[in-house]
Amino acid sequence: FLICVVATIAQPIVIGIQKTFKYLLLAMVTLLLFVLILSIFSGGMEQSAVYLLYFDSSEFTARTPLLALERAFFTSMLGLGVIMAIGRYIPSNTSISYSASIVVISNLLFVIVASLAINALIFSVGMTPGSDNQSMFEILPVVFASYDADQSLGTVFFLMLVIAAYTTAVALLI
To answer: Residue 101, CB half-sphere, CA atoms under 13 Å: how many?
Structure first.
C-alpha cells in the first residue's frame, strides 16, 4: 500500500496523481452505485432514511455538540491541509471558492448516498447501525455474509474503503 502511494506521488502531477484520482474516483462512484442499487432492493432503504435524515431528540445528549464539532474540525483541518498542498497546481484563473463549493457539495452528496446505502443493507438483515468506527469491522461482515452474493458485496465495500484510504494517503503526502 505504502509503496503504491509513494510511487504515485513520485510521478509528475499529471501522470501520477491526476490520472490516479481520475480513475479511482470513477471506480469508487461506480462501486457506490452498485451498492446503492442493491440496497434499494434490499428493503431497508426507508428505515435508513428515517435513521439518517430525521432528528430524534431522545438521542441528543450533552456530548452530541462536542462530537459534531470534533468531526467538523477534523474534516476541515484535513481539507485545509490538502488544499494547501494541492492549491499550487490550480490554474490562476480558477475560482477557489467555486472549486471548494463543488468539493464540499460532492463530498456531502457522496457521504449521504453511501450512508443511506450501507444503513439500508444493515437494516435489511434486522440489525441496527453502530455509532462507532469499529462497526464497519463488526456489523458489516455479518451483513455481507447474509447476502448470497458469493462475498462480492463485502469485496466491493472493502475495495471502496481501500480506494478512499489510498486517495486520502496520496493527498496527504503531496
So the answer is: 5
